[in-house]
Amino acid sequence: MLETAPHKLQIQVITPEENDEYNRPIPGTGGESWQDVTDCFCHDNSQQKEVSVNGERWVYNYHVVYEGKKIVLGSHIRCLDAEGNTVGEGDVKKNAECYSEEFEGRCDIWV
To answer: What is the DSSP-derived secondary structure letter of residue 19?
Structure first.
């Protein structure tokens, strides 16, 4: 469906530090990494459109369309172009249902 999607969607994964038997953090454990999710379209919101989330109005920076499972609200994501440059990055402010007939398996998120 999104065979020609120009961007790569990634989600930030935070691994907590491990502790020793005295509950002290073990150096070198834990950290942050980026996990590939799928190909996507990342649209820049240069027109400053607003979206309503539970009665609260948000100005979102990016609208991302992808195929896959729903991404949890508040997740930190980024979109990369073919050269690996960041096209858009931020926290998911609104996500739509993914498997409706209208979108044919596509998901929308606003960042």
So the answer is: B
pLDDT exceeds cutoff 60 at 1: no
CA separation for the pair 8, 87 (Å, rounded): 9
Q: Are 15 and 43 in contact (CB under 8 A)?
A: no
Walk me through the domains of the chain, giving residue ranges and CATH numbers. 7-110 (2.40.10)
Q: Which residue has the higher pLDDT, 79 or 45?
A: 79
Q: Which residue type sits at 17?
A: E
Amino acid, single-letter form, for residue 35:
Q
Tell me the average pLDDT across 60-88. Answer: 91
- Give the whole-angstrom CA distance, residue 105 versus residue 8: 17
Q: Both tokens of residue 71?
A: 């991404």
Structure tokens, 6: 């120009």
